[in-house]
Amino acid sequence: MIGAITDTQGIIAIAAAAVAAAALLSCAVLSVRVRRLRQAQRLVIGDGEERDLVAHAATMQEAFESLRDYVEEAATRLDGRLAAAEATLRGTFAHRALVRYDAYNELSGHQSMSIALLDDERSGIVLSCIHHRDQARVYGKRVLAGRGELELSPEEAEAVRLAMAGDGAVAGGDEPGAG
User: Fold this and answer.
1) What is the tens place of the pLDDT at every residue in 6-20?
2) Which residues make Cβ contacts (< 8 Å) with residue 101, sequence separation at least 6?
3) Predicted local distance difference test score (pLDDT) of residue 174
4) Does 59 share its domain with 76?
5) Residues with pLDDT less than 50, the chain
6) Which residues lie below 8 Å from residue 161, measured CB to CB, with a gap of 6+?
7) Could you tell me if residue 1 is inside a domain?
8) DSSP assignment, residue 46?
9) What DSSP string describes the chain?
10) Which of 66, 41, 170 is nearest to 110 (CA)?
């Protein structure tokens, strides 16, 4: 029996068995690789029951496009609202100044005053309140682009100048409430 293994036919049989074992091992390795490849394909392509990666990516793309459209629409709406708010704010009083003085040189404690209320276009009103011992008069004048529609008194012109300078100052006399 041992002689049969060492002769030519035995050596060929052993070599054939080794080749067959190597082929069987290669088939097992290839089978594992094919199984992994099919699992990867099912993940990407799907098997009909579960959602696949391609369909998920397509759904995500649609969701991102929908979100982008919504954000663009919201941004457009906000731009419109911001423009409307800015237009509204252009007409509000953004600059003001108060000038206190003694209109009749009576040493009455600077009870007369002129206040300028102007918007960003330097238009608005100047209100003057002239106090006398037994009466007070209030005057209003319109201001357009920093100039009075009617001639402004020196105190009114000073109030407009201070308001346009943008410091909101109180000029002349004591500060209100400093008393």
Assistant:
1) 788 888 989 999 999
2) 110, 112, 113, 114, 155, 172, 173
3) 45
4) yes
5) 174-179
6) 97
7) no
8) -
9) -HHHHHSHHHHHHHHHHHHHHHHHHHHHHHHHHHHHHHHHHHHHH--SSSPPHHHHHHHHHHHHHHHHHHHHHHHHHHHHHHHHHHHHHHTS--EEEEEEE-TTSS-S-S-EEEEEEE-TTS-EEEEEEEEETTEEEEEEEEEETTEESSPPPHHHHHHHHHHHHT---EESSPPTT--
10) 170
Residue 157 in any domain: the answer is yes
- Residue recorded with tokens 């099912």: 42
Is this structure's pTM higher than 0.90? no
113 and 99 Cβ atoms separated by less than 8 Å: yes
Backbone φ and ψ of 122, nearest 5°:
65, 30
Range of the domain at 37: 8-87
pLDDT of residue 50: 58
